[in-house]
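hi got a favour to ask and not much time before my train. below you get a single protein, a line of residues and a line of whole numbers that encode the local backbone shape. could you go over both lines and see whether the tokens make sense for that sequence. a few lines back from you is plenty, here it is:
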Amino acid sequence: MPPPGHAEVRIVSATPEAARRVADVLRRCFGGDEQRSYPAPGGGTRLHLTVDTDHAAEPARSWLATSRPPSGTGPHSEEP
């Protein structure tokens, strides 16, 4: 069992890169330790990491704020 305020996360994916991407997102939300990777049964990658659920790594942003395109990047009104 992880200590209080921490969670063990296991990611299983077909490729190491996909597992790393998910781990990177988790580390932006929560503090954590180094990830450990292992071969997954039947192929693929299994990645383990422990995250600190008591302390956010970055300020959380709402889904709505992150789903909007950045200001000034869309077409201008005079563009077709």
The chain is about 25% helix and 35% strand. Helices lie at 16-29, 63-67. The first strand starts at residue 6 and ends at 13. Strands lie at 6-13, 30-32, 36-39, 45-56.
